[in-house]
């Protein structure tokens, strides 16, 4: 296991770094190198408003934070006064040491409608939530609906963006079928149940042609996508997710490898490099395609990192880095979605014909 640190402000430079196509084995004679330390995972998180981020027992405050942690599996919790808390499941491994999460915090609803007044009427998310999310949500409640479970608390609706799932693009293969959350509506009162479905509408545009579903849909109903937006029928209140069903129809490996010649000294040495995470595409922010890709792969980021290793004597090492990159093509209903996704990153050092793995990482 190798020690990896994150230094968000570092550039891709290394002292004594020279490019070369080959090297004289005589320069390596008698020298050896070893990687050192334990893996340190990197969790990079962003919020549009100052917030408290908690992961693995550590809390950081700000809008952009970076956790260096050895906690492989955990939950990131993001809180701010007056905003609904957000959580995201985080998982690391030897081959997945970097995750980037963008969190959009939304305020608690200022529109709260008594259950007796909600019957036969509609309940919408408030104007600030509409402005932040760029979407309006409307709950339509039948006049003669019977409510059980939570029969006291008022009705309200808040739209939020689900946290990314961090799919491993290197494990995905053509023919794989996924169900990916696009958007969610927090419907209150939580725990309320209905004998007739409640209509949950979101005015997300350009959804026609996608294969959409709602895990909490009322039995026998389907998500309807038309020119107005998307509508799901639910039989109880909780977080109502609308998801896209899609099949991976093509994946092309576009990985890149580069080599540099590094002057090293006896003892500890540091090698600095850039590692990439997330995806790149040309879709409009907030579109169905953008939400589908963001929910699977997380936000794009270039993160400067460094790895340390020991050399037995002064000399030169050849450093080879590989960034796995894949062009993926998904099909949801009649719609095709294309993107470039960044996968794992490897760094190897070769001295006197012997290769040592300095770092295995990457976003997926």
Describe the protein.
With 364 residues, the protein is mainly β. 6% of the residues lie in helices and 53% in strands. It contains three helices and 25 strands. It has helices spanning 115-118, 127-133, 288-297; strands at 4-6, 17-18, 33-35, 41-55, 58-69, 73-79, 86-91, 98-103, 122-124, 137-140, 147-148, 156-160, 177-188, 193-202, 212-213, 224-225, 230-236, 239-253, 256-264, 267-277, 279-280, 301-311, 315-332, 335-351, 354-362. The strands form four sheets. Strands 2, 12, 13, 15, 18, 19, 21, 23, 24 and 25 form a ten-stranded antiparallel beta sheet that branches. The longest helix is centred in the C-terminal third of the chain and has 10 residues, at 288-297. The model is unreliable at 1-33 (pLDDT under 50).
What's the helix and strand layout?
Elements: E1 4-6, E2 17-18, E3 33-35, E4 41-55, E5 58-69, E6 73-79, E7 86-91, E8 98-103, H1 115-118, E9 122-124, H2 127-133, E10 137-140, E11 147-148, E12 156-160, E13 177-188, E14 193-202, E15 212-213, E16 224-225, E17 230-236, E18 239-253, E19 256-264, E20 267-277, E21 279-280, H3 288-297, E22 301-311, E23 315-332, E24 335-351, E25 354-362
Parallel strand pairs: 4-8
Antiparallel strand pairs: 1-22, 2-19, 3-22, 4-5, 4-6, 6-7, 9-10, 10-14, 11-14, 12-13, 13-18, 14-17, 15-18, 16-17, 18-23, 19-23, 20-22, 21-24, 23-24, 24-25
């Amino acid at each position: 296991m190798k020690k990896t640190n994150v230094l968000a402000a570092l550039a891709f430079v290394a002292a004594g770094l020279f490019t070369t196509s080959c090297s004289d084995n005589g320069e390596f004679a008698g020298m050896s190198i070893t990687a050192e330390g334990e893996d340190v995972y990197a969790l990079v998180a962003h919020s549009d408003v100052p917030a408290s981020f908690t992961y693995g027992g550590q809390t950081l405050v700000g809008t952009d934070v970076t956790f260096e942690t050895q906690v492989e599996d955990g939950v990131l919790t993001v809180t701010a006064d007056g905003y609904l808390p957000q959580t995201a499941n985080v998982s690391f491994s030897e081959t997945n040491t970097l995750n980037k999460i963008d969190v959009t915090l939304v305020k608690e609803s200022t529109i709260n409608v008594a259950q007796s007044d909600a019957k036969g009427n509609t309940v919408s998310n408030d104007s600030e939530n509409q402005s932040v999310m760029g979407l309006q949500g409307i709950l339509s409640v039948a006049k003669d609906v019977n409510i059980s479970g939570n029969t006291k608390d008022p009705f309200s609706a808040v739209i939020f963006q689900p946290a990314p799932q961090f799919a491993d693009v290197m494990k995905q293969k053509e023919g794989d079928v996924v169900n990916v959350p696009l958007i969610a509506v927090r419907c209150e009162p939580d725990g309320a149940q209905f004998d007739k479905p409640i209509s949950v509408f979101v005015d997300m545009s350009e959804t026609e042609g996608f294969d959409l579903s709602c895990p909490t849909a009322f039995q026998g109903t389907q998500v309807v996508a038309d020119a107005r937006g998307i509508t799901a029928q639910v039989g109880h209140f909780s977080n109502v997710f609308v998801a896209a069903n899609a099949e991976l129809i093509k994946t092309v490996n576009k990985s890149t490898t580069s080599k540099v010649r590094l002057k090293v000294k006896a003892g500890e040495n540091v090698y600095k490099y850039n590692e990439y995470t997330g995806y790149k595409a040309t879709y409009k922010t907030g579109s169905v395609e953008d939400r589908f890709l963001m929910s699977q792969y997380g936000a794009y980021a270039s993160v400067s990192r460094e790895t340390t290793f020991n050399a037995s004597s002064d000399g030169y090492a050849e450093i080879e880095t590989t960034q796995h990159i894949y062009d993926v093509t998904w099909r949801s209903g009649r719609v095709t979605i294309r993107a470039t996704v960044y996968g794992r990153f490897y760094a190897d050092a070769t001295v006197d014909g012997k290769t040592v793995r300095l770092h295995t990482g990457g976003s997926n």
